[in-house]
Amino acid sequence: MQSPVKIWRNQEKLVELIGKTGTIVSWTLVRVPTSGFSEAAPYPVALVRMHGGKMIMAQVVDTSPGSIAFGTHVVTVIRRVRKPDEDGIIPYGIKVRPV
Amino acid sequence: MVGIVSYGTYIPVYRISIAEIAGVWKKEPAEIRHSLGLTQKSVPGIDEDAATIAFEAAFRALECSQCKPQDIEVLFVGSESHPYAVNPTATIVGQFLGIGTAYMAADVEFACKAGTAAIQAIAGMVAAGHAQSGLAIGADTAQSKPHGVLEYASAAAGAAFIIGNDHLVARLKAETSFSSDTPDFWRRDGIRYPSHAGRFTGEPAYFTHVLGAARRMLDMADMKPGDFDYCVFHMPNGKFPRIVAKRLGFSEQQLALSLVVDHIGNPYSASSMLGLAAVLDHAKPNQRIFMVSYGSGAGSDACIWETTAELQKVQNKRRTAQYFVRQQIEKNVNIDYVQYLKQTHQI
Amino acid sequence: MKHQPTNMNVYVTGVATTKFGELWDVSPRQLARQAVQAAMKDAGVHPEHIKGLFVGNMLSGMLGGQEHLGAFFSEELELFVPASKIEGACASGGLAVHAAFNSIRSGQYDTVVVLGIEKMTDHRPEDVATALMGAGSEEERAAGATFPGLYAMLARAHMRAFGTTEEDMAAVAVKNHFHAGKNQNAQFQKEITIEQVMHSSRIADPLKLLDCSPISDGAAAVVLTSQKSKIKNQKFVEVAASAVATDTLGLAQRKSLTELSATKRAGEQAYTMAGVRPKDIHVAEVHDCFTIAEILALEDLQFAKKGKAAEAIRNGEVTLGRAKHIVINPSGGLKGCGHPVGATGVKQIAEITEQLRGTAGNRQVARARIGLAHNVGGSGATAVVHILKM
What we know:
The complex is a heterotrimer. By secondary structure, chain B is of the alpha/beta class. Chain B is built from 13 helices and 14 strands. In chain B, strand 12 and strand 13 form a beta hairpin. Chain B is globular and about 55 Å long. The N and C termini of chain B lie far apart (about 50 Å). Helices cover about 35% and strands about 20% of the residues of chain C. Chain C is built from 14 helices and twelve strands. Chain C is globular. Chains in contact: A-B, A-C. At the A-C interface, strand 1, strand 2, strand 3 and strand 5 of A face helix 5, helix 6, helix 7 and strand 5 of C.
């Protein structure tokens, strides 16, 4: 089971990151996922330069992989990160969605 | 004075058509469209749930207001698809909004009227001076058994209303409720899909309670349907709200703006709230809105809203950010049945 | 207290590598015994000569439930000497060599064994993929990134900046399979074509199956010593440089996506330590965990100008039998020889040593006198560069 304490601690850091905009600087389409991500595969993962200057890595949602390009504008949203254990705490995290 | 300070709405982008679902079960799409008055419904992304949807709606409500997250003193989330049976959706949303710790939070369940129950409860707290402002959210990723009739309508969306006592965009002029123990639609703990009692969900359930609350409301307020500019009713399908509006004496024009069901199906706790938002997006100042929700089990909450000149400020922000219900409806991506099953975790 | 001499010269006196591949019926203990016993025999040393054991490994704990590998292998090898596991993701082997090098250089030990070892095929591929992402950051794991995914993002940035193509990357795999065919220990023995690479299934766009080094089992061992007089055959392969550099764990925190700064810094440090320049290197084993990684390595180690490595590789300029100045990955690299994670860094030292001794058989790079080994951890958070001189 993923540690609820760790999930809780990580979630504290997320508040400042939500609803912020940035542009895509590189990306890939993950077709062979790690554990917990298989139901969503294939899914795009991107490096995003936020408008504050920081860079983040996040999954790209609500888009077709073909429409991702260098410079695509995105905004950060909260989504379920990975498939939770049946009886575990649900991990939420930052993903990005094209605007 | 109590009322709406700001509001936010969120509809996931994915849509599945009635024709696509009907095709899988070898039914005639035209028949379904005719009997249920539906064309398509919204589907949540594979990583969305009632908490993330509730959050988006609430985030937008705050974004289009002058309020800071810390101003929220009470937060209720109404849903029938809370991610946990025990662990409040409300504090997950509160945490991500950055509200802090100085607020009262709770989850509400009353089938499709959980959100309006939250509105009435918070309105009471604000009117009593126990809170200056609060967030009432209705959000759902509705579940339905494959091949069942509910499959055509059960959708996903969220609507959030900041209820306060100042800078109101719509005043709550009057409210009432009609409640009874009526087993028309239910879901037992641990059971995945809800069950329903067929045609019993019509007259003894939906119509009795909506009409019951509506008539009492009109009576209490000493008003007639003609006194209103708009009406909003819970939309379990495209037919029931139209029938009940007619029976009460409201016109098609009064009802038209609210009919989100025609485009996205029934997002349960967000249904009538989204209908209200759709009306607010286009209403002018000093207009009256008659709203009656319905939740199976069963009950209806009736509210009379009166818009103010402040509404335009929120409308402008929503329009610019592409948050209008109509704009959200237009942002859509069609998916097929297999993709629908994946996204709703059924395969 | 006796004055301990410092800055001892360090020599590689014995090397051995096991077969790399899907070794279903071989256990980690057997791999270790095979590699270490052969390396010690090659060095002409016995257990009583060994003063320390350094074990490079990444996944023993996460996948096998076994940590404490220093004690584990010290017992298995009946060495009972100071021993520890050194971990730095895919640079574990190189880091183990570095730790061993430091122990001899400081004069603390005079002869030690370095064992690089990994057993990966016992486990389900998605469990291995998840464990390998232990090399990255939590943000990367939460984003659903996979190891190929990280390098795919680097590839895309390189393609945009320099016009590198998927065919350019495929040429790396083709070369390294060609080299591996000359290496009886290599996981892959057959040549492949650019077309085959281009048509292999996509793993993380734009990287395809044949752009990626495989999941492998294997071990390699080297014996390092300061006791020059005890070295057999008077073949003195000296470790002229052992340099390590680190960078941010995650790609999102890097300054550049078109280079691995840790490689640049470790490389420059190694050149300085060894008193050589890139053009003096005759043969190099670089870290081609993915085809793009070899292109980056050539540029970061200054074997090619920025944006020019792909062309050089494509034109055969670093291929056995065609190269003019330097041959890259004569063993087959990670791609062709296989990549048992903790073993790779040690195997690279073994390969370079054989090259300098002139015992590399049909992989031999003519007149190789100075060689370089480059080992990277994660997506570039750790880089280890060794330079060996004959």
